[in-house]
Amino acid sequence: MSGLILVCIIVGFVVLYIVYRNAMQPPRISGPLDAVSAPPVVVGRGPNPLLAALSRTRDIFAGLFDRGRETREALEALEEALVRADVGAKTSASLAAEVADAADRKAALRAAIRSRLDKVDSRLVIGPGPHVILVVGVNGSGKTTTIGKLAWRLKAGGKSVILGAGDTFRAGAIEQLKVWGERAGVEVIAGEEGSDPAAVAHQTVESAKAREIDVVLCDTAGRLQAQKGLMDELGKVRRVIGKIVPGAPHEVLLVLDATMGQNALSQARIFKDVAGVTGVVLTKLDGTAKGGVVIAIAEEFGLPVKLVGVGEKIDDLRDFDAAAFVDALLPE
Ligand SMILES: Nc1nc2c(ncn2[C@@H]2O[C@H](COP(=O)(O)OP(=O)(O)OP(=O)(O)O)[C@@H](O)[C@H]2O)c(=O)[nH]1
Ligand SMILES: [Mg+2]
User: Fold this and answer.
1) CB of 284 closer than 6 angstroms to any ligand 1 atom
2) Ligand 1: does its nearest atom lie under 6 Å from the Cβ of 261?
3) Which domains does the chain have, with CATH numbers?
């Protein structure tokens, strides 16, 4: 009899322990979740960060809408200003033509730019894990820095994140990503320098899947859009990832350096098709960038602009906001 009581007590303790342990587990976040709306993401957000960034571009438009200028001359000056702001010849001509007959040309231009940008104003949405994001672009565009900033931001939003050091090509690239991993407080999966980037991508995604990690951010080597062999390599990385997680990579972010102006357009043209780009990150908008290239990207490719880089610090990554952009470029 006393033996039976003892068994009952032990079983009771085991049941209590299991209930307690389950209660202490953090809930797993599943289902689509807009990473941007998670509260900690607002860290570092202040007034319109593009106001200072685009001050030189604003100057280009100064005085353009003053009364008293003959229409033809005013339109030519407007088109020329748009070209100087990096909007590109084609898009500048179409914008100038669109506002030619407007009574309030400035308001019309604001609306015309806004309507183009609204079509590409987009948020990064994180689906059920592992959500795989491949980051591509030319050398020095800001891929690795963007990955570091994004990892930090996603982690602050409650996501588990892992980084794949897929740039096995450039000396020091793996170390650079590891430094960002440390800053953001996330793990980095890396291979040897010179090893196959597809193998690193494979290992990273496998690891994320096995450990139920929410987001994988995969770095890649910088490559020029004209380097066919390297562009083909991206195809291999994508295929390898897709074999482990069907539908992955869920996002291919093309990182474009806004200070490159029109060159960014030719990069977008090639990467878009070869790498299956799903969105653009426009970096260095805090620098000497004129910013207008984003209007040309919207007009010519309709690629969603998901994020903008406004500095080198970990919290210098923002959502692209079409309204804030137009206000910074052409204040009312
Ligand atoms: N001012 C400014 N600098 C940036 C921004 N994003 C990146 N950078 C700087 O741009 C330089 C290149 O950044 P990386 O992240 O190394 O660029 P990458 O595309 O990984 O370059 P590769 O690995 O050589 O292809 C670094 O000095 C960064 O600090 C930004 O938004 N603003
Ligand atoms: Mg890099």
Assistant:
1) yes
2) no
3) 50-118 (1.20.120), 124-321 (3.40.50.300)
